[in-house]
Structure formats: structure tokens, C-alpha cells
Please model this.
Amino acid sequence: MKTNEELQGMTHDELVAYAEELQTDLKSSRSSLTFYCEEKNKLEKKFDNFKNMVKSLVTLVD
Model:
């Protein structure tokens, strides 16, 4: 992140390039966040399935 003084000292072309860089970083961050959220949901679903399986086994054994 650049300070206000750094931004004011930049030319128009530098500001445009910096904005494009920030947009690229934002897209990358969003795709990473989406990936990790999907993986978290998959793991939670697997864990829930495992819990249900154990409950069923306990019911069968009793």
C-alpha cells in the first residue's frame, strides 16, 4: 500500500499501472478465497457424513 504522498508524486501512467496491479491482486485474492471456501465446505460435508456414519454404527451396535 502506498502513502498519500507517494500516490500524489506518481504520474498518470504510473497511477494507471498501479491500479491495474491492484486489480490483478484483488482477482487473485478472490479466486484464492473462493478455492479455500469451497475446500472448507467439502471438508465440513465429509466430516458430517463421517459423524452420521458413526451414529449409525453406534445405533447398530446397541
User: Anything to note?
Assistant: The first helix runs from residue 4 to 8. The helical segments are 4-8, 12-61.
